[in-house]
Structure formats: C-alpha cells, structure tokens
Design goal:
Largest sheet: 8 strands, mixed
Strand content: 35-45%
Strand order of the largest sheet: 21-16-17-18-19-46-45-42
Oligomer: single chain
Structural class: mainly beta
Shape: flat
Helix content: under 10%
C-alpha cells in the first residue's frame, strides 16, 4: 500500500512532499572548506575532460554534442551545490543511469561522463534480492522480483517515496507516462500509477500464457508477445487493442522476442526465423534470418529489449553466430564470435561495435563491424556473473548487480569504471546511517593506452577457425566481501605454462613463423550483392587474398585483394532463393596457403521496400479494378507481389507490377493492400481505398427553348414516378450522372427521338432520374446505353 507519509491535509500528491534544500551537517572549519573547494575543482576538471572525450570529433558526433550541451550546466551546478555526503542536497547528472546493487540493497546513480556515483538510494527490504529497475518512463521504479514489492525513487530527495505489494514473477515495464506490470504465467497485464505505484483499473487477461517479455515505447504503448497465439498485443494509451499476427501456425508455441529499435517495436520469431516491424495497424517489413540462426536450439537465441539505432543484433548463444538486421534498409550482416558453450549473454550495439557479455569471466567481447574482427575485450568484473547491458544517452552501461563494479562506455569505446559501493556520495539517509560497504577503496583503472589491459587481445579475426577464445581467469584473490568467487577451473582451458619448459605452441627462434589464416569473414546482404569483409592474417604478411564460395557465374570484385587491403570483396550474382557462405584464402610468397573459417550464410538480396506510385483504373462497365505500381528501389529479380482485399478473382503475373481484379460489385468501396516480398522477407505494404464507381459530370443537351421543361423523377418512369423537380426550358446545366438503367419509353417532344434509357443523377442531395434523351451522353439520340456511363446494378 502507499506510504501514508505521502499524503497531506493540503491535498498534495503522495510522495511529492517538500524538503528543505540545506545540508544537515555544516562545518565552519577553514580546512574543510579548502579541501571541499579543491574537490570541486577536481570534479569540474574530470567533467570537462570526460565531456571532451565524449564529444571529440569522430564519425558519430550527435551523442557527443548532446553531452557537451549538458556538461556546462553539470559543472556549474557542482560548484554551486557541491558533492556533499549523506543527507546533502543531491546533484544528479542529466547524463547518467541508475544501477542496482543486490548485496547492499541499493540503487546507485552514476554520472555517464565521469563514471562517478553522484547519488544513492537505500531500497528497504530488498537486500540480496533480484530487482528490476525501470528508468525509461517519467519516473524511476524498482520491483523486487522475489517479494513483488514495487517502490518509486524520488531522485530529488534520494529516497523511496511510495510502495505497493504485488505478486512474484512479474515484469515491470514503463514508457513515457505509462507503467505496467505483466504476469507472464497468468497472462495478465495490470496498468499502474507510476507515482503512487497503485493499480489503475482491473487487470487485462490475454488468455494464453506464458507470455513473452514485453516492451513499452516512448509513447507508452505496451507491446506484449503472446507466443501461444503467435500474436503481439499492443496496449496504446493503456488500452488493449486487437492482436497482430506475427507467427505462422505450428505444433509448438512460437518464441517471440520483442525489441524497440530506435523506439519502433520489432518482434523476432526464433522458430519461424523472422524479424518483423510492427505498427499499430498491423505488420510492417519482415526480414528472414539466416539458417545458422534459425537452426539454433530452442531458447538459445538472444535479442536485446531495446537498441538506440535501427540495427537489431540476433545472437545464437552456443554457436556464437550473429545476425545484424538493419530494420530500415533491410540489409543483413552475418558474423561469428566463436562458440561459447552458452556463456554469452544478450548483445547490445553502440556505434559500429557489438558488445556481447561473457558470463563466464565477467568481460565483454567486442565485435567491430567496420574491421570485421573481434577487438580487445573489456573487463567489467573479471568474475563469473550475469552482466546486463543497456544504452542510455548514447552510452553503453554494463552492470552486475552482485558486484561492486560496473562500467560505462561511450561511442568511441572509452571505458569509465563505476564503483557502486562508494560511500562518500549523497543519499537520502541520515549521516549516522552506515553503508554496508564491500568496497576496499581501490580503483581498477579503465583500459586505455597508458594502462596495460589484464586480458589478451585475442585473435585479430572474428572467431578464428570458429574456436572459442580462452576464458580469462579472474585475479587470484578474495572478493571485497571476504568470499572467493573464483570460478572452478575450466577443464577445456590450457594449464598455466611452466616457465622452465618450452612452449610447444611457440615456434623456435630459428624456425620461421607459420602462415596464419585470415579472420572468419562477415557477409552482408545487399540489393543484388553480397559484401564480404574480413580481417587480414596476423604474423607473416600474405601476398594477397582470394574469395572462395561465390556462386557460379557471379561477378567478384576485386578478383584478388592485395596485402594492404581494403579487405573486402563484392559479389554480384546468384539467386535470392539461396544462401551462400564464403571463405577467404591467404596466399604467401613461398606458395603456402591458409584458408579462413566459413562465414555465416547470406543472400544476394534484401527484403524489398513498399511498392511505389500505386494507381488504379476501371475496365469498361466497371465490375473490376486494374492496379499498377512501380517496384521498390531495392527490388531484385526474385521480387513478387501480393494484392489482397479484392476477392479471390485476381488475374495477372505476380512477378509483374500489375494486377487485374474482376467479378467485383460496382458502387462499392474496396480496401486493397499491395505488398512486395522475396526470399529475404516481405516489404512494407501500401493500402489503397478504391471506390468502384464512375460518376460523370455531363451537361443537359437538346433542351429546346419551347416552353416545355424537362422533368426530374424519383423513379425511371415518366408517368408513374412522382416529380422531384424540373429543368427549365432552354437551360443546359451540368448534371452528376451516376449510372444508367432501363425504364419507361420516352419520346423527345421536338425531334421525335425515342429511348427507354434513364440516367440516375444526384439532385439536391438526393437520388433522382432523368430521361437520357435530354442528357448529353454519346448515345442519347440513339436510345442505347452509353459506354462512358456504367449500368446500374
């Protein structure tokens, strides 16, 4: 239930009580003031240096410029307010994130520019419990996964202000000003008040559990995967909307993984091997995953819940095979990290690098897509444990809730360490309250040019020969809490070499170095092409490289890559229906050759975009629609099209950009959908609403000025139908003619023409009839139906 302290007689919102912005502890000691001023100056210097490290010119300047706009305010605020201790006014960085610490039962807020902890909040009753912290909405909420206790953090006071109790095993999701609790077992969604933490309305039953992990976009729309139905159910503005079908019917439930790619909902169907963009109205573009991902064991495919860009990484945990799907261009890149025996965690993308946590040794494996290689790993904890990754404010945050250390990484790859157990930081507790500190005060330097990295750089190419890199053992010393978390020896790991014995893998000084193969290539699908990139061989420099595995008759440029690169081949040709894998062979001056491992599969095509310039026309007499359109810019020879909404009678070759719909009913509106697809996926669709009518504006003709007006009737009958109006003698106004029908025979009173054809017209907002003898259709003098006006049904 909400904390009673949050209410007041004045009717203030619970939890938002005012607090005096003064330090509880004061000192007049000049020495303390002098030290405090020195600390402020040092902090300002660190902020300025961190800001420059973030914004220094590079290819991705946007994040840096945002950070630069904020750093001046941060430095100024630090000088005025000060850093303080427990009970001081908090000064939280705008560029920062909340990180949980299960051992201390706290949430620490860290500055993204410096890595400093600038505030802490004690989470009552949550010590040693797994918790979920949600900071993507307007408020910061924390859910105790063991007890179901939900609390709200007040960043301005660094206190827990509200709390409510819910069930266990729930998922907390926030977006914008909306917050939800999802029960995956009972298949229920409960909207909650993010300020009071209390329920809003009754829970919504989705009827088929278990549910997949849900996400909420910045507008607050919740997207809940329902694998048992193969659907994703959106909750716009907190209200349940119709489910969107994303998976085909199968004997077993689909595995649906949600991602927000640049705030757009995307669902990955690991069983069906597809990645699909979602819209409120239904499905958008759909991309097919390569076979090495779709063949991965069930439950072993990992996808992040959110990425800041358009690229969604899809990782097969055991094999280390990875697909990077660009959800805007449709291109797909495949790469290899090397097998891991299931140690890999959920990947995350920042800039051109993909960061993959290795849960076995507390490090991040870093794959550089531009270099097509695995680069130097990042040490986070150096110990076995679960690392969680998320991107916020253009920075990658990595946290182990069971460890004192976290890291923050900018787009240039610069690492800042965050010591969550620091005690000399502001908090909402009284100065006498003690932290449970397991931090001995020492600081691990962030890897940099002046600091030797404790981990080896690893192979220069991705997944050399598809063998996993050796796991790194943590330092042989007890943890700060007095326990030894050193993992058990890995039987697959080589024993520590004896310095007195020669290394069998190390060549003798007199023995020439052995030629090394290039790195495992990465293959990137494009419209009509496959781009193959690779890391060059280490050690002995080859005389050149050749590509192997290109389809027969394909155009490979260049035919041979020189020793200095660029280390890329472009393959034009092949069939979109097939997937191709490649190796790169290095050639050496002594005639030896060394071949790389095999790339992931790729197609020479991408999922097409939506058809362009959809136009319609009607056959004579109607009862059909002729559609034409232009192919998407990235459509290849394998692109086909589907047209729905016009009934089963659809004529025409779907490989052509046209369709003929027949046996339709005139004077009805049809909603038609035209979509493009190929073996790589289905493109965006175009919806066109067509009103199957042929209303014409035709002028009255042969109305002789003889004193007799032309009658307008309510029925196509000159005698029985009541008169709806008349057209004065001699006048020739424009009439809106809808269609023609047979009625009573009429004779023109001046020229003697005869006709039983009547025109249905719009007359003063109603439907009426006038004899075709006095309407200027092409056959009105002949008494026949006119081709330019359709027959009425």
């Amino acid at each position: 239930m909400p904390d009673a302290r949050g209410s007041s007689e004045e009717g203030r919102t619970p939890g938002l009580r005012p607090r005096r912005l003064v330090d509880e502890a004061k000192s007049t000691d000049r020495e303390v003031e002098r030290r405090g001023l020195a600390a402020l100056k040092a902090r300002g210097a660190r902020l300025a240096a961190a800001a420059w490290a973030t914004v220094r010119p590079n290819r991705r300047r946007a994040t840096g410029y945002i950070a630069l706009c904020s750093v001046g305010a941060l430095v100024g605020t630090s000088v005025v307010v000060g850093t303080g201790k427990a009970g001081a006014v908090p000064d939280l960085s705008d560029i920062g994130a909340w990180l949980t610490s299960s051992r201390t039962g706290e949430a620490a807020h860290a500055n993204g520019l410096t890595g400093d902890v600038d505030g802490k909040v004690k989470l009552p009753g949550m010590g040693d419990h797994p918790v979920t912290i949600s900071q993507d909405g307007k408020t910061v909420l924390v859910l105790d996964e063991k007890t179901g206790k939900l609390v709200r953090i007040d960043p301005s006071q660094l206190t827990v202000e509200q709390s409510s109790r819910y069930g266990t095993g729930l998922q907390l999701v926030t977006g914008g000003r909306y917050a939800y609790l999802v029960d995956p077992v009972k298949a229920r969604v409960q909207r909650i008040d993010p300020v009071r933490t209390t329920p809003i309305g009754a829970p919504v039953d989705l009827g088929a559990g278990p549910l997949g992990k849900a996400v909420a976009d910045p507008k607050g729309t919740l997207w809940v995967p329902v694998p048992g139905k193969g659907k994703v159910v959106p909750f716009p503005r907190g209200k349940k909307a119709p489910g969107i079908k994303v998976a085909a019917k199968s004997n077993k439930p689909a595995t649906l993984l949600m991602t927000l790619a640049d705030s757009r909902p995307v669902v990955t169907d690991t069983e069906g091997g597809t990645v699909t963009l979602l819209k409120r109205t239904g499905r958008g573009m759909r991309f097919k995953l390569p076979s090495n991902i779709t063949k991965a064991p069930s439950g072993s495919v990992l996808v992040p819940s959110a990425t800041t860009g358009d690229v969604v990484p899809v990782l097969a945990r055991k094999s280390g095979r990875m697909a990077l799907v660009n959800t805007r261009t449709g291109s797909l890149l495949t790469a290899s990290l090397g097998s891991s025996d299931g140690r890999y965690g959920t990947p995350q993308v920042l800039g051109s690098k993909v960061y993959v946590p290795d849960q076995g040794n507390g490090t991040l494996k870093v794959y550089d897509t531009e270099a097509a290689a695995i680069t130097k790993p990042v040490k986070v904890t150096g110990k076995r444990g679960k690392l969680s990754l998320f991107v916020r404010d253009g920075l990658l945050w990595v946290n182990d809730a069971d460890n004192a250390t976290a890291v923050v990484i900018n787009s240039s790859g610069h690492v800042k360490r965050v010591h969550k157990y620091d005690t000399d930081v502001p908090s909402g507790r009284k100065p006498r309250d003690k932290d449970r500190s397991d931090d001995d005060g020492r600081r691990d330097p962030a890897p940099g040019p002046d600091t030797p990295d404790p981990l080896p750089e690893g192979p220069s190419g991705p997944g050399r020969d598809d063998k996993p890199a050796r796991p790194e053992a943590p330092a042989d010393k007890p943890d700060r809490d007095g326990t030894d978390d050193k993992p058990a020896p890995d039987p697959k790991q080589d024993p520590k070499p004896d310095p007195e014995k020669p290394d069998p893998d190390k060549p003798d000084e007199d023995e020439p170095a052995k030629p090394q193969p290039p790195g495992v290539p990465q293959a990137e699908s494009g419209p009509g092409t496959i781009r193959v990139s690779f890391a060059p061989s280490s050690g002995v420099k080859p005389t050149g490289y050749r590509l192997k595995g290109a389809p027969a008759g394909a155009d490979v440029k260049p035919t041979r890559v020189g020793p200095g690169g660029p280390f890329t081949f472009e393959v034009k040709g092949g069939s979109c229906d097939r997937q191709y894998t490649f190796t790169v062979e290095a050639e050496f001056s002594d005639g030896q050759k060394a071949e790389s491992g095999r790339s992931g599969p790729a197609r020479p095509c991408v999922a097409p975009g939506q058809p362009q310039n959809v136009q319609h026309a009607f056959p004579q007499g109607g009862k059909g629609i002729n559609l034409t359109w232009q192919a998407p810019a990235n459509a290849g020879n394998g692109t086909t099209y589907t047209v729905t909404g016009g009934g089963p009678d659809t004529d025409g070759n779907r490989g052509n950009t046209r369709a003929t719909l027949r046996n339709l009913k005139n004077f009805r509106a049809y909603t038609l959908t035209v979509a493009a697809k190929n073996a790589a996926g289905s493109g965006g669709s175009v919806v066109k609403r067509v009103n199957l009518s042929n209303t014409k504006n035709i002028r009255v003709a042969d109305n002789v000025d003889d004193g007799d007006d032309v009658g307008v009737r309510t029925q196509p009958n000159g005698m029985a139908g009541s008169r709806a109006g008349f057209i004065p003698s001699g006048q020739t106004p424009m009439l809106k003619v809808i269609c023609q029908v047979e009625g009573s025979a009429e004779t023109h009173d001046t020229y003697g023409w005869k006709s039983d054809k009547w025109d249905r017209i719009e007359w003063e907002g109603k439907t009426a009839y006038v004899s075709d003898l006095w309407v200027g259709t092409s056959n009105h003098r002949k008494g026949e139906f006119s081709p330019e006006v359709w027959k009425c049904e």
